[in-house]
Design goal:
heterodimer, A: 378 residues, alpha+beta, Helix Hairpins, Immunoglobulin-like, five-stranded mixed β-sheet, B: 535 residues, mainly alpha, 67% helix, 1% strand
């Protein structure tokens, strides 16, 4: 048996040597970028060392017993089966260790649960399968989607450092500012986790959870959704960019400006080819996950758009679906998520592409129609 | 005339009927126990095959062999099958075989109920597995089936899943009623509660846990059913319902459930360690009290699975403290096992190897459990591979190793034949190495930030995941060897003695009857005097 243990160890050593393991940082939690995350890291290490010490003590004691008391000729086993004193001793010992752990845990817990309002408050909404960020005070917002290409995911292109941890538009926050996050969801439960902030809060429909952070140094911080939320659960990363307060106010002003520009675009005269171009890009970004690249979907859950009655001949219902979503199905409303131009363009695109224009009525939709739909609803 | 009737009587009641109807109509605890065990072995290979698909997909970053949607179906059904189809029925199988023999009873108290509780299980799993061939695919919302992913956003097959869970629950409840009735009414004269073998004690408590929480699970799935088909809004935020309510109900069932999967293991391991230490178990009564306190505590710790749902701080602290308390009785058990071996005369047959590995690796799982109990640190651990590592450490080298240990320990008594000791040891070492290769690196990727239940992952997790996958494939292959060893034992094993293990006849009634145990064991109750060490 001891030869077998030696063999095991050498096998493990060989395996470890042959695989190229990256940094040793990959073995442990990151201390993170905020005071809170560092305190939680410190707590983690304290508990870890206590557990490691207990583990090593138990395993060594066990190894000793297994070796020392293996069956030998002429040695009779003892027959004691009880020792109240001993049992009370170790029960008390366990209780003391637990109290030692509970004290720092309680104090860190109280710090993490500080619910005071932030200097900046950001509403985070989880959607299948993207995050929406809204800056409550400044009334601007956007959606943040995974930007890793399908080619990389399907092993057709080389993967790089931030594979699956990159987004089209990161959440931007200022340094040296108390930022509070209000976290909720629009469909199923998601969970917003940025390890460097030590924030993991479930995003639950009908609930608003909170988390807060105070970042000292500029930097980029990456995280992922950590609650199973459907088939693309693994594909909704979080990227937070902390910038100086000056850079942050430029960012917010640009966002406000863009919002005004966007409104003006609905007044412009649009050609079919302009709409098709924007529509195709919008479709690739927002629709392919379910309706697939060729528009054929994955029936019955994700219906095909090719040859669909609505796409070919029912323009009014087509607009309605994009604006309202479909009750009881996976199709969500895109009224908030896309601009009027993008919605008009993607409808136009799907009505024109894949031979739909030839078999159907091929009607295009202009941004003004979407704006009117919104206005009439009010 | 009476002579004729007597001979007629003799013809009939000695040995089972022949053919398939023996198994379909049987009310014999040994037949039913065997069926439970074979069923769970089959399910182990089905659930294991799903694990192999998962590990093949995660072998390297990037999409490998299945779609994300099918991956979720694999994750979900792997969990459901391993929990409800492998660990639980296997323990019920051991209960059926061993409880009557250990308490000196002729059979279970309610043999027909026993037959029913087994035979509805294949029905339940037939329904669950049939969903793979239905439109929309099998359940894909994780074995914890959190609403609204499992209600408003579920595939249509969720209704079959609900029905299947109901049947599993009914089976467990009937099985538990039977076990409690048997233990309370059919013990040999002189076997007081505090003289019962520890396996019997552990099942006695487990059965109460099952009766307490299975109806809660049934309630949860019924509310889901109503939300899906009857327009109610228990868990629908849009209708004024509460998605977090689902998690509270689920984990009120779920936490006792995880102890249902480990308490009988404590009983098994205690027997094996005392037999191969040739020394009575240390601290029998504290073992019993420890099992009972773990069971009681399991009802007040459920929300430690929910530290990130946004509970008030009082809730976070309460569930943190109550969870930490569980470490006390668990630690007592580990120290008692060590003390049993201390100054013993140890030999290392296959059952003992698995039992020792159980104690060592369950301790690792228990210690990561203490880390997870620390609520603020859990913000970083929750729903990462650290959790996956933790619960696989307590369920695979924990529960599953105890089942393998028990199979090697008692199979000579069941079949009357010895398994191949060399092959058994090969099986142990292969399992032991590969189980650690599989689950230990999961701690690392979890701490480094890899979420669970994802079909693809970032580059920094690649090396460890490949190692985990290699370990998992090895572990899978090792269990095929177990099947071979069992078949070889049944068809080609050397005859076993009555005592089987040196000195075992003092340690339980099962070692006083012939090997193989007769079809009907005790027609008159055995005497406690026949067990020397039972004083």
């Amino acid at each position: 048996m001891f030869r077998a243990i030696k063999f095991t160890l050498s096998l493990l050593a060989a395996l470890t040597a042959n695989l190229s393991f990256g940094a040793w940082d990959d073995l442990n939690m990151s201390p993170g970028a905020t005071q809170l995350s560092q305190e939680i890291f410190g707590l983690h290490m304290t508990v870890f060392y206590v557990c490691l010490a207990i583990g090593i003590a138990v395993l060594l004691a066990m190894a000793f017993i297994l070796f020392k008391y293996r069956k030998k000729e002429g040695v009779e086993p003892a027959d004691f089966d009880d020792s109240t004193a001993l049992e009370i001793t170790w029960t008390v010992l366990f209780a003391l260790i637990l109290i030692v752990l509970a004290v720092p845990a309680t104090s860190v817990m109280i710090k993490a649960y500080d619910n005071e309002e932030g200097d900046i408050n950001i509403l985070i909404t989880g959607h299948q399968w993207k995050w929406q960020y809204e800056y409550i005070e400044d009334e601007v917002g956007f959606f943040s989607n995974l930007s890793t290409s399908l080619d990389k995911r399907n092993n057709l292109a080389p993967k790089d450092e931030n594979y699956l941890l990159e987004v089209d538009e990161p959440l931007v926050i200022p340094t040296n500012t108390r930022v509070r996050f209000l976290i909720t969801a629009n469909d199923v439960i998601h969970s917003w986790w940025v390890p460097d902030f030590a924030i993991k809060q479930d995003a639950i429909p009908g609930f608003v959870n909170t988390g807060w952070t105070y970042v000292n140094e500029p930097g980029v911080f990456r995280g992922q959704c950590t609650e199973l939320c459907g088939q693309y659960h693994g594909y909704m990363p979080i990227v937070v960019k902390a910038v100086s307060p000056e850079e942050y106010s430029t960012f917010i002003n640009d966002k406000k400006e863009a919002k005004i520009q966007q409104a003006l675009l609905t007044e412009k005269l649009w050609s079919t080819s302009e709409l098709m171009e924007i529509g195709e890009a919008t479709y690739q970004k927002n629709c392919v996950a379910c309706h697939q690249v060729g528009g054929r979907g994955i029936p019955p859950v994700f219906p095909s758009l090719v040859g669909s009655e609505i796409v070919m001949r029912n323009k009014a219902r087509h607009i309605e679906i994009l604006m309202e979503g479909v009750q009881g199905a996976a199709m969500a409303s895109y009224a908030e998520q896309l601009t009027e131009v993008e919605i008009a363009a993607v409808i136009t695109y799907t009505r024109q592409a894949w031979g739909n224009a030839e078999t159907g009525d091929g009607k295009i939709v202009i941004p003004k129609e979407i704006l009117d739909y919104k206005t009439n609803k009010l | 005339m009476s002579a004729v009737i007597d001979s007629h009587h003799d013809d009939h009641h000695h040995g089972p009927a022949k053919g398939f109807s023996r198994w379909l109509y049987t009310t014999n605890h040994k037949d039913i126990g065997s069926m439970y065990l074979w069923f769970s072995l089959v399910m182990l290979f089905i659930g294991g095959a799903m694990a192999m698909v998962i590990r093949a997909e995660l072998f390297e970053p990037g999409s490998q062999i299945v779609s994300p949607e099918f991956y979720n179906q694999m994750v979900t059904n792997h969990g459901l099958i391993m929990v409800f189809g492998v660990i639980m029925p296997a323990f019920v199988g051991f209960a059926n075989w061993m409880i009557p023999m250990q308490i000196g009873a002729p059979d279970m108290a309610l043999p027909r109920l026993n037959n029913l509780s087994f035979w509805i299980l294949p029905v339940a799993f037939g329904i669950l597995l049939s969903t793979f061939f239905m439109e929309g695919g099998a359940p894909n919302f994780g074995w914890t089936f959190y609403a609204p992913l499992s209600t408003e956003y579920a595939p249509p097959t969720v209704t079959f899943f609900i029905f299947s869970v109901h049947i599993m629950g009914a089976s467990s409840i009937m099985g538990s009623i039977n076990i409690i009735t048997t233990i309370l009414n059919m013990r040999a004269p002189g076997m007081t509660l505090m003289k019962m073998p520890l396996f019997v004690w552990s099942w006695f408590i487990t059965a109460y846990l099952l009766i307490a929480v299975m109806p809660v699970l049934a309630g949860a799935v019924t509310m889901m059913l109503m939300d899906i088909h009857a327009g109610t809004s228990f868990f629908k935020a849009g209708g004024g319902g509460d998605p977090v309510l689902f998690q509270h109900i689920f984990w009120f069932f779920g936490h006792p459930e995880v102890y249902i999967m480990i308490l009988p293991a404590f009983g098994i391991v205690s027997h094996i360690i005392e037999t191969f230490s040739r020394k009575p178990i240390f601290g029998y009564s504290s073992m019993v009290y420890a099992i009972a306190s773990i069971a009681l505590l399991s009802f007040v710790v459920w929300a430690h699975h929910m530290f990130t749902v946004g509970m008030p701080i009082a809730g976070e602290l309460f569930f943190m403290y109550s969870t930490m308390l569980i470490a006390i009785p668990t630690g007592v058990k580990v120290f008692n096992w060590l003390s049993t071996m201390f100054k013993g005369s140890l030999t290392f047959e296959t059952p003992m190897l698995f039992a020792i590995a159980f104690v060592a690796l369950f301790t690792i799982g228990g210690l990561s459990g203490i880390m997870l109990a620390i609520a603020p640190a859990d913000f970083q651990y929750h729903d990462t591979y650290f959790v996956v590592a933790h619960f696989h450490y307590v369920l695979v080298p924990g529960a599953l190793f105890s089942l393998l240990a028990a199979a090697y320990y008692w199979i000579p008594k069941w079949t009357g034949k010895m398994y191949d000791e060399t092959l058994g040891k090969v099986h142990f070492w292969m399992s032991f190495i590969s189980v650690n290769l599989t689950f230990f690196p999961m701690h690392f990727v979890g701490l480094a930030g890899m979420p669970r239940r994802i079909p693809d992952y970032a580059m920094q997790f690649a090396d460890w995941n490949m190692m985990v996958s290699v370990g998992a494939f090895l572990f899978g292959i090792s269990q095929l060897l177990f099947l071979f060893i069992v078949l070889k034992c049944i068809y080609n094993g050397k005859a076993a003695t009555t005592e089987v293990w040196e000195g075992a006849k003092d340690r339980g009634f099962e070692w006083t009857v012939d090997s193989p145990a007769p079809y009907h064991t005790f027609s008159s109750p055995p005497s406690m005097e026949s067990l020397k060490s039972s004083s």
